[in-house]
Write a structure and sequence with these properties.
The complex is a heterodimer of chains A (359) and B (275). In chain A, 28% of the residues lie in helices and 34% in strands. Chain A is built from ten helices and 21 strands. In chain A, the strands form five sheets. Chain A has a six-stranded mixed beta sheet, with helices on both faces. A five-stranded antiparallel beta sheet of chain A has the order 13-12-11-14-21. In chain A, a hairpin with a 2-residue loop joins β1 and β2 (16-26). In chain A, α2 (92-102) crosses α3 (107-121) and α3 packs across α4. The longest helix of chain A has 18 residues, at 166-183. Chain B has helices at 2-33, 37-42, 54-62, 65-96, 102-111, 121-130, 137-162, 165-173, 178-189, 191-207, 210-215, 224-229, 239-249, 251-269. Chain B has 275 residues and is mostly helical. Chain B has a domain at 64-230: MetI-like fold, CATH 1.10.3720. Classes of the chains: A alpha+beta (359), B mainly alpha (275). The interface between A and B is medium-sized, with 24 and 18 residues.
């Protein structure tokens, strides 16, 4: 077990900068998720830590030792690939034992470790099979097992669940997180799926265009997004963004097309901090609703809107409407749902809203 | 139902006809080898009326047949091993390592396929004379290896490029250096490509008459095709001996093919179905 640190790491491919001045410290036993849209540099970072890609500038440290010039095979890391990369000509046992065989681990020890990992993963009855004869979930487990038996300092996982079907993915997500906590191995987990990131990570790095947007715990990312990108990326129904301007006459307020909201001082503060007049109001769909308590306290935050489309998901419903020219989504709990075409007074919880500079 | 049965009958008919087309010459060759000279001339395609082993006797008594056989096997095996070893290494480099001039080197090697060896034969003759390899089996091996490498590199590189590169990376992380990754991970997966290249190279090397004719003078260095040619005389040809020798010469390629055919078919059809 070891901490992993990246200091001022750059990766340049020819003319393009894939990773720009990346700094990150991952504590011992921590599960750090690196998330972002495709091409944001997250896989490049993982490959640099693995030693499969050179570092253009900066330093990578594993357990305090700089490993820039250490070969992948000497870094004591294990990696799970997106397509598993199981050796097709070897059976499950040999796949898992290959790394130990290369390191001249005694045969008895190898058999014990592989057997144990297989038992933990529930694949001990498959040890004689070739990867071709396994299902996607089983292959996934073998790939995990291959990483586990090595008892490495660091696990690196490159979108390990993206080739599984939705149901299995949810199941494996939970198993993986449980396994990681049980083994306590420092883990870097790369994904493009924000749900995976939110549910699995102790902390999350959000990247875009090779640049770190925010590094924080899942809840803080949700509660306090650092910028528009993070705000839009986190949350399974994306945050609503409404263009507004900040007005400060007698009472501070936000004015936008079809809305006028007097706002609390904290929000004014965060609006002023941007230093801009033209702002974007960010409100999560779950913060727009029919809450009578909030409506009584803040009648000025009520906006009468015409529901256009209503999607009922059972426990909750998504209501789509337009304010001015901006499409907005509200997520309403319960069964008291407006019908399409109906006009409803929805209350915006501006205590939980965010203001960003307009780009 | 009826149409399908007719289709099947037709299909098998065509396949049988094809099989016959391939096997009939072999059959003629084998039967003819058991005829007497007179039997061959009087009834070329018939069943031997009187079975004679004279041809086989002549093959072993008149010439150093066993020596020719040994030379052929030696030259073919050595050339093949050289071709395959070098081609696999070249393909590994070309498909798995990015370096400046990668494409150029690849096309340079492939360009070898476009040069007929006959064009270069005079220079080769001088070259081997100068380096003292004229009338030496090594000359055959080297020339044949050089001729075979471009095509083998082409086949194996193509196959290699289709293997996911993550396999090599997984091997690297599992503690392999480049050699071990090639040996334990890639090589077993390349078997179909290697078998394909081996079969394609085997036949022309085994059958080669032209290059031994030019580079070999001594009788004890002759290969089979050259040795068999001694039975063709200016005034008369020992046909039973020719056919007996041919019959025996055909055995190694047949065994070789049977041995590798499964891998060979896999090599030809790989990529057709996503596996």
């Amino acid at each position: 077990m070891a901490c992993v640190e990246l200091r001022n790491v750059w990766k340049v491919f020819g003319e393009t900068v894939a990773v720009r001045d990346f700094n990150l410290r991952i504590d011992e036993g921590e599960l750090m998720v690196v998330v972002g849209p495709s091409g944001c540099g997250k896989t490049t970072i993982l490959r640099m830590v693995a030693g499969l890609e050179d570092v253009s500038r900066g330093g990578i440290y594993i357990g305090g030792r700089q490993v820039n010039d250490v070969l992948a095979r000497d870094r004591n890391i294990a990696m799970v690939f997106q397509n598993y990369a199981l050796y097709p000509h070897m059976n499950v046992f040999d796949n898992m034992a290959f790394g130990l065989k290369n390191r001249k681990v005694p045969r008895e020890e190898t058999r014990r470790r592989v057997g144990e990992a297989a038992r933990v993963l529930g694949i001990d009855h498959l040890l004689g099979r070739k990867p071709k004869a396994l299902s996607g979930g089983q292959r996934q487990r073998v790939a995990l097992g291959r990483a586990m038996v090595r008892e490495p300092q660091v696990f690196l996982m490159d979108e390990p669940l993206s080739n599984l079907d939705a149901r299995l993915r949810v199941q494996m997500r939970v198993e993986l997180a449980r396994l990681q906590r049980r083994l306590g191995v420092t883990t870097i987990y790369v994904t493009h799926d924000q749900v995976e990131a939110m549910t699995m990570g102790h902390r999350i790095v959000i990247m875009n265009g090779g640049i770190v947007q925010q590094i924080d715990t899942p809840m803080r990312l949700y509660e306090r997004p650092a910028n528009l990108f993070v705000a839009g990326f986190i949350g399974s129904t994306p945050m609503n963004f409404i263009p507004v301007t900040l007005e400060r006459h007698d009472e501070p307020a936000l004015r936008g097309e079809g809305l006028y909201f007097p706002i609390p001082p904290e929000l004014v503060e965060s609006g002023l901090k941007t230093g801009k007049e033209r702002l974007v109001l960010g409100v999560r769909p779950e913060d727009i609703g029919l809450d009578p308590e909030l409506a009584r306290q803040h009648p000025e935050w009520i906006c009468r809107v015409g529901a256009e489309v209503v999607e009922s998901l059972g426990a909750e419903s998504l209501v789509y409407f337009t304010i001015g020219r901006t499409a907005v989504t509200a997520r309403l709990a319960g069964v008291n749902i407006p019908r399409p075409g109906e006009t409803v007074p929805l209350v915006f919880n501006l205590n939980r809203a965010h203001l960003f500079a307009r780009e | 139902m009826f149409a399908r049965r007719v289709g099947k009958v037709l299909l098998y008919g065509v396949l049988l006809w094809q099989t016959g087309l391939v096997l009939y010459p072999l059959f003629i060759m084998v039967t003819t080898s058991f005829k007497t000279s007179f039997g061959i001339i009087s009834d070329p395609f018939g069943w031997p009326r009187k079975v004679s082993f004279r041809g086989y006797g002549d093959v072993f008594s008149l010439v150093n047949f066993a020596v020719y056989y040994r030379n052929s096997i030696l030259v073919t095996a050595a050339s093949l091993i050289m071709i395959l070893a070098l081609s696999v290494l070249a393909a590994y480099g070309l498909s798995r390592f990015s370096f400046k001039g990668n494409r150029t080197v690849y096309f340079y090697i492939l360009a070898g396929m476009m040069i007929p060896v006959r064009l270069a034969i005079v220079s080769l003759f001088h070259l081997f004379l100068n380096i003292g390899l004229f009338n030496n089996l090594l000359s055959l091996i080297l020339i044949r290896a050089a001729m075979g490498i471009p095509f083998s590199v082409f086949i194996i590189t193509g196959f290699f490029s289709e293997l996911p590169k993550e396999l090599g990376e997984a091997a690297e992380i599992d503690g392999c250096n480049s050699w071990r990754a090639l040996l334990y991970v890639y090589l077993p997966l390349l078997r179909p490509a290697i078998a394909t290249a081996a079969i394609f190279d085997f036949i022309p090397i085994w059958n080669d008459f032209y290059i031994p004719l030019i580079f070999i003078r001594s009788d004890h260095l002759k290969t089979l095709p050259l040795g068999i040619a001694t039975f063709y005389g200016q005034f008369q040809t020992n046909w039973p001996a020719v056919f007996a020798a041919l019959t025996m010469a055909v055995i190694p390629p047949l065994v070789f093919y049977v041995f590798l055919s499964r891998q060979f078919i896999k090599g030809l059809t790989s990529g057709a179905v996503k596996g």
